[in-house]
Amino acid sequence: MGLKLYVDRLSQPSRAVLIFCKANGIDFEEIKVEIxxxxxxxxxxxxxxxxxxxxxxxxxxxxxxxxxxxxKLPAIVxxxxxxxxxxxxxxxxxxxxxxxxxxxxxxxxxxxAKIHSVLDWHHLNLRHGAVIYLRNILAPILGxxxxxxxxxxxxxILISSLSIIENIWLQGNGLYLLGSxxxxxxxxxxxxxxxxxxxxxxxxxxxxxSPHKKVLQWIENTRNATKPHFDEVHNLLYKLKKNxxxxxxxxxxxxxxxxxxxxxxx
Amino acid sequence: MGLKLYVDRLSQPSRAVLIFCKANGIDFEEIKVEIxxxxxxxxxxxxxxxxxxxxxxxxxxxxxxxxxxxxKLPAIVxxxxxxxxxxxxxxxxxxxxxxxxxxxxxxxxxxxAKIHSVLDWHHLNLRHGAVIYLRNILAPILGxxxxxxxxxxxxxILISSLSIIENIWLQGNGLYLLGSxxxxxxxxxxxxxxxxxxxxxxxxxxxxxSPHKKVLQWIENTRNATKPHFDEVHNLLYKLKKNxxxxxxxxxxxxxxxxxxxxxxx
Lengths: 266, 266
Prior knowledge:
By secondary structure, chain A is of the alpha+beta class. Chain A folds into 2 domains: 3-102, 3-Layer(aba) Sandwich (Glutaredoxin), CATH 3.40.30.10; 106-265, Glutathione S-transferase Yfyf (Class Pi), Chain A, domain 2 (Up-down Bundle), CATH 1.20.1050. Helix content of chain A is 61%, strand content 8%. Chain A has helices spanning 12-23, 35-39, 44-53, 64-67, 86-96, 109-137, 148-169, 185-195, 202-209, 213-225, 229-250, 252-265; strands at 3-7, 29-32, 58-59, 72-73, 75-78, 81-84. The first copy, chain A, has a 4-stranded mixed beta sheet, with helices on one face. In chain A, helix 6 (109-137) packs antiparallel against helix 7 (148-169) and helix 6 packs parallel to helix 8. Mean pLDDT of chain A is 85; it is low at 36-47 and 255-266.
């Protein structure tokens, strides 16, 4: 009984775990949780967006107690051992599987502590902001009521988090977080979170991301360090982005309706 | 240059770190960040409440880049090494200082992974719910506008988190989280979070906590495992509780005004 990953490639922490295993040559079985069939969503397209904006961990009703009593993705089963929460999964795999290079999760206690610190910070900052923003900005596409205050609050947390990454976590001349010249699990986790912004309208994405030049370069560095797996695992998200672009273009008015009050608030 | 802890005993993660060090006989210097003087808050009492409901990490403008560029508590300095985020601090101290019993942060990879999983879950569940709820329910005392929707949302997340602790994390016959018979850093972190509810009006506290019998017993178990340090470190919170009780009694109408819409929403 080898390592089983219960994942959805549209969920950002699922992608981080998948890319990590592929980049480190770890054998695993990818168990795709077929959300469409289970949630009986229709039309299929709307279901896809719903998945892509749902948080950090993804509630899957039928994942069941056998795998994860909280019914969320990603989850893993390694022999008889079950685990969820993506950061914990990344740390476990980096520690338990031979052949993972030290830079992903260094044995040195101070380096390791700094990586924990970034990962802890992630939850209530970058992740929290990105999830609130995406969920609310895409509400009209999901057929949900638009909560402009929530979207504005999410955008504020998201932009503040990107500034902290730019000015604090990416300080120095390194290519990765904490001034490192090689990536860690924290780089992968945070970059996958930011990649979720790809499904935004191009103008929104650029407005939020483009002022953060170091962040953009760091995303490229992480992509390069894990190629070709990074793009292969993100391929489903790129397809969704393409589908949504057509929607945005066809529905300029709706877009305008969302953005005007947001811009005026910030 | 020994271990320095930059803490405020009214901040829940600061207390977790303090109790952990005291319970494990670790030498440290407690550097109390004197928030009153720096924030120039007046009257002093209101300042105290403000501190007690501010999140997980506490923003201290004057903490400065030398200690923590994000200017938050708790933070530590160990020789030349600086660290913040309470979970990361607990893990670092448990790993770097001799004499910490294995049960606090087990060397076994699967046990350790489960503790990471609880700690990761904490951020966007128990901590998130408790902070939103406390900040909003105490808004009138802080002279801030009451956001009933936010308070109701915080209470919902908080109660859901307590149910998950009761039914999932405290499953089995153990005395602590994950069915353990000895406490880990996760017990201390989560219990200190819940202890912040002590500053609520007694009726609110009981309404939220009393249905969770296992949670109440587990708080007692954690208190017993770390005595006398647990109560000694919480003493400032108990004093605040006493002061606030008098306020609640003197201001029954305000209390009623907060609770009615909350109850009707949930």
